[in-house]
Specification:
Helix content: 25-40%
GO molecular function, one term: UDP-N-acetylmuramoylalanine-D-glutamate ligase activity
Protein name: UDP-N-acetylmuramoylalanine--D-glutamate ligase
CATH class of the largest domain: Alpha Beta
Largest sheet: 9 strands, mixed
Strand content: 15-25%
Family: Belongs to the MurCDEF family.
Shape: globular
CATH superfamily of the largest domain: Mur-like, catalytic domain
Radius of gyration: 22 Å
CATH topology of the largest domain: UDP-N-acetylmuramoyl-L-alanine:D-glutamate ligase
Binding site for ATP: 108-114
Domain Mur ligase C-terminal: 307-420
Amino acid sequence: MRLVILGGGESGIGTAILGKKKGYEVFVSDFGKIKGNYKEVLIINGIAWEEERHTEDLIFNADVVMKSPGIPDKSPIVKKLLEKGIPVISEIEFAAPFTDATIIGITGSNGKTTTTMLTHHLLKSAGLNVGLGGNIGKSFAWQIADNKYDSYVLELSSFQLDGIMNFKPHIAIITNISPDHLDRYDYKYENYIDAKFRITMNQTEDDFLIYDADDEAINDWFKTHSTKAKLIPFSLIKTFSEGAYIKNNKMEVKINQEEFTMDTEHIALEGKHNMKNAMAATSVAKLMQIRKATIRESLSNFQGVEHRLEKVLKIHNVQYINDSKATNVNATFFALDSMNTPTVWIVGGVDKGNDYNELMSLVREKVKAIICLGVDNKKIIDAFGNVVDMMIEVTNMNDAVKMAQRLSEKGDTVLLSPACASFDLFENYEDRGIQFKQAVKSL
């Protein structure tokens, strides 16, 4: 069997290692450059590879092709493969049959990284032999090749779910759905929603789907679609006989005739959206029969996720917050919603089809100045130019942070929450967040 891998990043290299171990003839092809450390891994393992091109003769003889999530279905090479009837799948689809571990799959437009990390933290603290992968950390396929975990917590993007046929998690979570990556879905929101719900398409009556019952897009989907999985909703406003909710400042989780309660003030994560992430993760912990005391302790000592509403420093009584991971409007909505002080907001980057109107009332209420950090800021200026007193454009992080310091006064917050992708000025959102933290520390 010939396995061709498009993309020599973390997921591509992990799939190559697993494929080789399982007896496939493996070839890795990357249209860009492959990082030095990944090349070394390929060479050590005797895996054939090429970079800065796709040689069609070496690709079209594949029995199966694994495509990295960053490569769109519209790319010419993928189109040709599909025309030839060669299956193009994601790493998750390729790797899953090689493990009998319990899989917990987490998707959503926002909150999926926090929910994934928190779920992993809950299970690991309980002593479970559990791996963490998917969209974060070490490749799922690589872990299956190297380790023997009893369960995996996987963060799954819509791109990874686009490439599945038979993959099914035992427990699936959809944290929420809001418009994102619409450039990859023909600018049709319903295509993106359907992509997220692929997480449950192969689930059976023995599996579980945990979801946000306050989410409009999710509720609309359920009006015309169904899943065989057992449904476990969570909500800030409704209550359930089976599910999770907040009532009188207590989180209550009822699953399998068992009840778990905890005062929300003892949960380490702050903000309404994080209460939802906590309810989703706790629902998994209850399904995995983790002890109540362990769940309480884990929820109260969880450190949060880097680049997600991360408090950096307080300088002259101004709090600097790094929310670089907010790459869409909905994520920034959560960030602004949790601000309790006048805010200098650093925003901008590569717009993925954003509608800034959703932020209008929060910007009016909380934002005193806007710093646009992007190559093209026209949409942001058009949206908020008349709403805030002060609007400034910059093209690097140092200028953004220095300007924010000038515009802020005691008791304010400086918030980096870009609502956009980072590729115009930065390598990725991590690079953007790290540059922000360095700039703040050198003030």
